[in-house]
Amino acid sequence: MDVTNVMAHVASSVDVTNILVEVAPRFEGYVYPNEASPEPLWGILIVIYPYITGLVAGAFIMASLVRVFRVQALEPVYRLSLLTALSFMLCATMPLLLHLGHPERCYEIMMTPHLTSPMAIFGFVYAWYLMAVLLLELWFDYRQDFVEWSQTEPGFRGMLYRALMLGVTDESEAAVKLDMKLGWIISIIGIPSAFLLHGYVGFIFGSIKANPWWGNVLMPIIFILSAMVSGIALCVLNYMVLTWVRRKKIDMRCLDMMAMFLFYALVIDAAVEGLDWIHRIYSAEEDFSVIRYVATEKLFYTLNIGQALMGTVLPLLMLGLNQVVRKRLSDMARKRMYFASALMIVLGVFAMRWNVVIGGQLFSKSLRGFMSYKMQFIGMEGWLLGLVVLSIPFIILTVMIKLFLSERLPTAGHTPHPTPPSN
Amino acid sequence: MSQKLSRRNVLAKISAALAAACAAPAAQAAKATVQKVLVESGGAKGYDPTKHKWAMAIDASRCIGCGSCADACKKENHVPEGHYYRTWIERYVITKPKPGSDEARGEVLVDSPEGGMHGFGPCPVPKEELLQSFFVPKLCNLCLHSPCAQVCPVGATFDSPDGAVLVDRKYCIGCGFCIQACPYGCRFMSPVTHTAEKCTLCYHRITRGLKPACVEVCPVQARIFGDLKNPVPDDPLQTFYKNNRVQTLKPHLGTEPRVMYAGIDKEVR
Questions:
Q1: Which residue, A38, A110, A156, A313, is the most exposed by fewest CB within 10 angstroms?
Q2: A286-336 per-position pLDDT tens digit
Q3: Exposure on the CB side of residue B77, measured as CA atoms within 13 A
Q4: Parallel, antiparallel or unpaired: strands B157-159 and B165-167
């Protein structure tokens, strides 16, 4: 093959992965003719969708620990977690829209929802969560600061804060108290809403009885628990990165507390996912041989290494060790272990979403054969677009931190939960 | 009292008239929508879906695997080239158990090259190792409780009163949920329209008194089609139900397929 040929091949080839690694045969055994497509129907975008919504729910629950459960040690990350939830929430529908065959008809989901469909209500759950929970809670929390900042900040920032004030300038003690009270009520409503948002995403998969990998009553619960784990882990990472960028000292009491909640959430998550597997292995139904093959062969790296070992066992050990001998470990050692655990969890939960979404499409519903998936680089379901979609919430978060968590701006300093006057 | 009552009566009458005035156009609009949908699905003008109940049955023991049905379906319905099929044929080859093994049967090999459209090649195992071989035509199972229609977020896929499960391609948003929900692999995402596609029982034909293309071309009457509401004398469907012990596919899923099979094996899923 001459050079131009090779160049042409490379230029026209969309699958870079093919050059880098050996590709498994596309089909093994028998798959229904309609399943014999080179790409699964739901690709990386549908992997990202539950990942992002999970991070939203998890980050919100993290913030609720402060407001509803009055975990005062976590106050330094309260606003950061809420802003994290908001930035990811704003992007939650993006992968869905990009993946639709007719995105221009997406409004039909809300205009004429088909009420027996688990997918039809997403628009409403999303709107409810974004409008009635996240934005409202943030607004009540920030309102007093917006009033202050609108007076001190010039230019664009001043205009922005003035606009966000929505014309409410009352800074009296009673008004601020009301803000806090309403924020608290919204937060209480927000917790079941966060469970609803992500449990619902789990139900989209759990309700598909045609697919034994998905059709599982535990699916919504597994999704919620892994969402909490990933959300808290993301907040740990965000907090550590932000303090590092700002050359600030990490509040170790706060970080230890986050790590503690992360550990307990991970224990419950691992227990429920373990229960799911014990049940599958013990009951060993018709589909078991297929499921076993997918878990041990097709998804060996992402499931056993990525999700189980890296995303669960190692963080459990590290975080667990910190629970037992925290006092004997130096701050630096703890910080490193927390960071490593959080990073592994965030990646491990991504692997979990991959395993659920892609794993369910690696075997034929005839239970007689397997498909392979080789992700492309370019294209709607390629990893370039996947990376772009995944990075957008981080870009939004950076902007939000600049605008609403700026070091230059003094905050009113009220605690985000109503505390008795004696405190 | 009487005055009050009469006022109430008047109010009731006015509101009833108002309700009727509001409901009449709504009902008309709904009817027009249904008719439009039926026309768009290729239904004949004046066809009343409530007066029919179409069903299909498969006598697998008759099927010779010629592939005419799959081929006819592709042509009749302009099914896109490639791995897209509204109907297809599977070949099951069951080998004898290995000598010395205490098993009843050997391996089960299944294939469906190009949906069986061009027939099948020679048997993949030598004659002396072969225990059984048979063909099974597959199509939309016309489920009574169709999971595809259940999960469609906008109701683009719907159960027509005449038993067909149809897709309104001008309404489908192309999310693919129905394709995931169909346990039988009968649906696909059309690369042309980017909407879900499936067997319509050749709706444009059956609403005009014709048989579906696959039934029409089957040389051995392995596919039996009829109208449960309007049985004809010596109705082939009724004869089939009378003479056969039937099975449906994946009955444990509770979808209650209305396509019934005779002469299939436990290996058929």
A1: A156
A2: 999 999 999 999 999 999 999 999 999 999 999 999 999 988 999 999 999
A3: 27
A4: antiparallel
Three-class SS string for A210-222? Answer: CCCCCCCCCHHHH
CB-based contact B50:B163 (threshold 8 Å): no
Among chain B residues, the shortest Cα distance to A108 is held by B154
* Residue A28 β-bridge partners: A370
- Does the beta-carbon distance from A33 to B186 stay under 8 Å? no
What distance in Å separates the CA atoms of residue A142 and residue A138, rounded to the nearest whole number? 6
pLDDT, one tens digit per residue, over B124-166 is 999 999 999 999 999 999 999 999 999 999 999 999 999 999 9
Identify the H or E element spanning B218: none
Residues A296, A299, A302, A305: what is their CA dihedral angle, to the nearest 10 degrees? 10
CA distance B241 to B190: 35
**How far apart (Å, rounded) are the C-alpha atoms in residues B158 and B168?**
8
Give the C-alpha separation, B18 to A273, whole Å: 57
Q: Give me the count of residues in chain B.
A: 269
A235 CA to centre of own chain: 11
Contacts of B66 (CB under 8 A, 6+ apart): B119, B219
Query: Residue ranges of the domains in chain B?
Result: 49-59+140-262
**Strand pairing report for B88-95 and B130-138:** antiparallel
- A319: closest CA among A389, A239, A264? A264
What pLDDT, on a 0 to 100 scale, did the predictor assign at position A407? 85
Q: Is A93 on the interface with B (CB under 8 A)?
A: no
Contacts of A117 in chain B (CB under 8 A): 150-155, 177
Domain extents in chain A: 44-207+377-423
Burial of A413 from C-beta contacts in 10 A (0-12 / 13-18 / 19+): exposed
CATH among 3.90.220.20, 3.40.50.720, 3.30.70.20, 3.10.490.10 for B49-59+140-262: 3.30.70.20
CB B146 within 8 A of CB B167: no
- Within 8 A of A125 by CB-CB distance, chain B residues are none
Cβ of B111 within 8 Å of Cβ of A30? The answer is yes
